[in-house]
Amino acid sequence: MTLKLDAGLKLVAATHNPGKAKELHALLEGRFEVLTAGALGILEPDETETTFVGNALLKARHAADHSGQIALADDSGLSVTALDGQPGIYSARWAGPTKDFGLAMDKVAERIEE
Fold first, then answer.
1. What is the DSSP letter of 43?
2. Catalytic hit among 46, 65, 75, 100
3. Is 74 annotated in the active site?
């Protein structure tokens, strides 16, 4: 299905990350009104899929269902060949509850050194 997006349309970015929100605002400025899931009070869903694409779809559908608007999302992480693709979709979990990606990189270094 193809959907035509008219200028001025509201889009919900399924993110609570201020950096991602800023990037999306810059990319879509003047074309669409970008709202974020965080600003709308939409809680982040549990990322239960097994791929980045699956988690992005899950987040977009969750934001669309809870906002009634068209939503977009991405999912990303670090896949290290020397670690057979780890941490992959679990990158944020390696960063801990405070999302300390320095901690995640320390874990990557430790595992590579093992």
1. P
2. 75
3. no
